[in-house]
Specification:
- Homodimer.
- It comes from Melioribacter roseus (strain DSM 23840 / JCM 17771 / VKM B-2668 / P3M-2).
- With 368 residues, the chain is α/β, with parallel strands linked by helices.
- Helix content is 44%, strand content 17%.
- It has helices spanning 11-17, 19-27, 47-51, 62-79, 88-91, 114-125, 140-144, 163-182, 187-198, 200-208, 211-221, 236-250, 286-298, 314-317, 332-350; strands at residues 31-32, 37-38, 55-60, 83-87, 102-108, 129-134, 147-150, 226-231, 253-258, 275-279, 302-308, 320-324.
- Strand 6, helix 7 and strand 7 form a beta-alpha-beta unit.
- Helix 12 (236-250) runs parallel beside helix 15 (332-350).
- The longest helix has 20 residues, at 163-182.
- The radius of gyration is 20 Å and the shape is globular.
- It starts with 10 loop residues before the first helix and ends in an 18-residue tail after the last helix.
- Bound molecules: 2-deoxy-2-amino glucitol-6-phosphate (AGP).
- 2-deoxy-2-amino glucitol-6-phosphate (AGP) is lined by residues 61-64, 108-110, 113, 116, 159-161, 248, 361, 364-365.
Length: 368
């Protein structure tokens, strides 16, 4: 056990720390810089059909569903194909309209999640092209799909998914790049995405150097009973994922919300006891997020913000900041989620909980 944990006290921490490598492995050999495109062997022969899809549906559960939400933003922005993201457990029972011209992507770390597998069987029956995005090679979802892309994150043992999430996002970026280039994205823009992807492992290493700082911040928040996580645009799914990480391993109630929705209800919860985690990197909605931060501050909420390295404005407004390097908006979630993984980890450890095997949870949910 000690050996497989590589000297770390928990698998979860080991897997968080492995991310510079796991992210690299997900893209290794798959980026063609000269052509500004990705090469995905598992999709060979299906590319044109995917490009011609009327619609892409993404079906998944939990963290993989959060990855799917980021995928929706990427694919719609760059490939211009309408995307719907479905909870597999809802999708399969609600008589979904699935057409043969649709492509359905099933995202699953384990490749064994019962609801995701059942939704795959349903979509296949209806004649859609079914693609698997899995980590476990030869898993049921990988086998049942018509084609797919492995994320190559390496074995993930901790129940809380960490490196699989960032690798799922890398693979969704690769799929987006492929489709976008086959549609209207220019060579220059494609090459820009590739350069940004190639710089991710170094940027992740930098974030991981904040581990001690995040551990100290965890001291201040470990006794809180509730948390709100807020983000907009590409960072909205990151808010959901940050909240899920905290819930599942620290047993603290946490909710992720699109920051602007706060004023439609959750703002009533804010007082000096309510910590709010903002994911506030510099993107198209940055100024709007600042307004949301000010709204929370005016109600005395405690704020922890994930900001870009060059941001010297937000730290004046909030209680704590954690800095992450800048990248293009579509890839920013791969970086901004990492401090939230570490925060959840340290809070849970400080509360004396079983981080790798939280109560009531299994690594892969094979019951419906
Ligand atoms: C994530 O931390 C969870 N433990 C859980 O939500 C998980 O992502 C979900 O059960 C889906 O699993 P899969 O990716 O193996 O299908």
């Amino acid at each position: 056990d000690e050996i497989t944990k590589g000297g770390y006290p928990h698998y979860m921490l080991k897997e968080i720390m492995e991310q510079p490598d796991s992210i690299f492995n997900s893209m290794r050999g798959r980026l063609l810089y000269e052509e500004g495109i990705s090469k995905l062997g598992g999709l060979q022969g299906y590319e044109d059909r995917i490009v011609r899809s009327q619609r892409i549906i993404i079906s998944a559960c939990g963290t993989s569903w959060h990855a799917g939400l980021v995928g929706e933003y990427m694919l719609e922005e760059y490939a211009g194909i309408p995307v719907e993201v479905e909870y597999a457990s809802e999708f399969r029972y609600r008589h979904p309209i699935i057409r043969p011209e649709d492509t359905v992507i099933f995202i699953s770390q384990s490749g064994e999640t019962a609801d995701t597998l059942a939704s795959l069987k349903e979509a296949k029956k209806k004649g859609a092209l079914c693609l698997g995005v899995c980590n476990v090679v030869g898993s049921s979802i990988a086998r049942e799909s018509n084609a797919g892309v492995y994320i190559h994150a390496g074995p993930e043992i901790g129940v809380a998914s960490t490196k699989a999430f960032t690798s799922q996002l890398v693979v969704l970026s690769l799929i987006t790049l492929l489709l976008a280039r086959k549609k209207n994205l220019s060579l220059i823009e494609g090459q820009n995405i590739i350069r940004e992807m190639q710089s991710l492992p170094e940027k992740v290493k930098k974030i991981l150097e904040s581990n001690d700082q995040i551990e100290k911040i965890a001291d201040e928040y470990m006794s809180c009973r509730n948390f709100l996580y807020l983000g907009r645009g590409y960072n909205f799914p990151v808010a959901l994922e940050g909240a899920l990480k905290l819930k599942e391993i620290s047993y603290i109630h946490a909710e992720g919300y699109p920051a602007a929705e706060m004023k439609h209800g959750p703002i009533a919860l804010i007082d000096e006891n309510m910590p709010v985690v903002f994911i506030a990197t510099k993107d198209a909605v940055y100024d709007k997020v600042i307004s949301n931060i000010e709204e929370v501050k005016a109600r005395k909420g405690r704020i922890l913000a994930i900001v870009n390295e060059d941001d010297d404005y937000i730290e004046k407004l909030v209680d704590h900041v954690i800095r992450v390097p800048k990248t293009i908006n579509m890839l920013q979630p791969i970086l901004s989620v990492i401090p939230l993984q570490l925060l959840a980890y340290h809070v849970a450890v400080k509360r004396g909980l079983n981080v790798d095997q939280p109560r009531n949870l299994a690594k892969s949910v094979t019951v419906e």
